[in-house]
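Thread: quick sanity check before group meeting

JM: Hey all, I'm pulling together slides for Thursday and realized we never actually wrote out the predicted structure for the chain we discussed last week. Dropping the sequence here so it's in one place. If anyone has concerns about the input, flag it before I start.
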Amino acid sequence: MLPTKKTTYDRWLQPAVVTETAGTLTRTTTTRYDGAGRAYWTSVTAPIGQARAATFTKYNATTGLVDYAGVANAAGTDATTARTSTTYDRWGRALTYTNDQGETTATTYDGAGRVSTVTNPTGTTTYTWDGTDATGSTERRGLTTGLTMTRAGTGGALSYKGAYDENGTLVTEQMPGQLTRTITTNALKDETGLAYSGQVTPTTATTDPDTGEVTWTPGTPVTGTWFAWSTDRDGMGRIVREYTGNGAGFDGTPGVPETGDTSHLPVGEGLAYDRKYTYTARGQLASVTDRTVNTPAGAIGPDTTPGEVAGMYCQTRSYGFNTDGARTTQTVKQYNAGDCAGTPDHTATRTHAYDSANRLTTAVSIDGAAPSGSYTYDGLGRQTTLPAGDTPNGGAAATLGYYVDDLPASVTQTGVTTTFALDSAGRRATQSTTGGWGDGQAVVRHYGDSSDNPAWSVTTPKNGAAELARYTDSISGDLGATITSTGDASISVVDPHDNAVTSIAIPAAQTSGMAATVVTGWARWGEYGSPAASPTVTGPLGYGWLGGKQRETSTDAAGLTLMGVRYYNWTTGAFTSPDPIPAGNHTSYGYPTDPTNNTDVTGRASGSSNKWEKALCALNISDCVYVRRIVNWSTSTANAAYRDGQRRNAMRHMIWQAMLTWWLGATKATAWGNAHEKTTTFRGDSIRDQKNNVAGRELGRGLRNKYGRVGWNTDNAMRAAVKWARGRIDRGIYARCTGSWSYCGG
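JM (edit): ok, ran it. Output follows.
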């Protein structure tokens, strides 16, 4: 029986009590609000699932900002334990953030109100704004042009530099180890190319006239491409083809140059591919044609012919869905000779069955064979038993545990249990493993802000010493480096889908400006996150697939991905518990049905699943094209302008709505703004965003009234919008979300 939900509201129409009932089982979520309408006490109770303490949020009586949040006392009048607290300056900017372990992260600002330094117990990150950028040009638009991270060891700090195009999109990023990340975009600012370059060593071949033996002599190192990807897109911005370009990292056997190789990288490990994607009329991924290799053998592109690259084979993956959007079939065909148009050497069809609520009922059926096991669910619709045939590692059935509010609590498989203890904000804090191979292993995550990405972690392996890992961002905002307590760093290399495909070592004694030459392993995933039969790159917490966004996939959780607030199973392309946000995806359990272009890194809603936005696109394609361009521009501009999440969010919404109002008018801009918030992940986040949207539309009206659209080009309007928004935000005039992570989303 599926739970039914009943909501009662207070006099201000805010949800006060939410009751979910399934038979005799009842889960109750109670929220209390203060006189200003702010949630300050929340409790979730249910007869099943691991209990969670009620939480209390304390607001500053003068500013209205959150002073602290934590576990509520018995009276519900204060947070007496497990507090996370924040202090602010007079502009409302966060100065310190102290997590529930008592560790403080401090932020300083420059005279223009921009983040200058962020310091936590593991090190300091320093920001540079404007000035000379990564290309040697002068930047004046208030964008981040440099980052440095302190570390232990004799090599000194790690450094990044960035450069932007005319719209403020990051296009060049210089990384430690003389590496450069280059991004190319189309007119709509969709990414069409990604390349990493670094030191390569040309080689010269000498043939012995008597023996015919070829000797390769290394020359003077030069800068060349290591890894590169190109993407072709259709009119809706979807990727229809993706392939790796020429790069030294795609060379063959490490240390052995191939004939004619003039740009050999001694440790090349990259596995090249050429993939074509097709879609259904409903926008679902229909098929993938994947030409690739299992050992490094050189580049593969659209013009590569069968037999041209040693070991190249072709695999097609086709998907079927029911009328609701649940994935029912996956058919895999393999062509060992690499000719996708030939006769397949192997074909397998995987089929899954669902009940009327689109819940998986039995394990996979392969080519019509009987399923090997069934799913079990608790009264709240959460999978408690994962049959062996559908576990990511395929070893044995897995048992899943949950907290009363559906957050992951434990995973058990083959006698090994991993449990997750949460902080008061609902984030995984302590992870403990008992039994079998992992008995005694522990991981502690330490948070430096309100997001669910830890600033550092400490892993204590079985019978081993504690190992610290600090996680730092690059200028792009993705995971940039993982730094140990001794100063050894691993620079993350992500592909166009934010998957961490490899890492580049910068030892503690090596300076940031010294050329890197070592690539550590290679990882490759399918569109739904399935790992290929190749070495994986995960690091201490399992940052591999979607590792750029710090999503965790590891053996500790039986190979499941800890995707925000839910477990995700790449084997089925589905979550293990119901969607906390109605209509967040096609079905309550489903991952986005176009995983090539969409993600759901929060476990709450797809980044592009909003059916109301899609409906507006269908009504007016020309408006949709403009909106897509402005969305990409506003996101990249805000990311470059602010490191603080609240300010970044305010900037994004203000300039987005300003430009939509300037071009489309306030009525259409409002429609797009409302559509975007229809499936919001966090209620507090939606309230904040709508207020900043209103401010943006006011600016847009001013631009239209003052300049009109004739004789005032888009670039000038964009610059005016950014200048106005920055002035407003730097003075503290913007909407914030005041509440816990579960209410605001960070």
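AS: nice. The two ends are 34 Å apart (CA to CA). Residues 70 and 83 are 4 Å apart (CA to CA).
JM: adding both to the slides.
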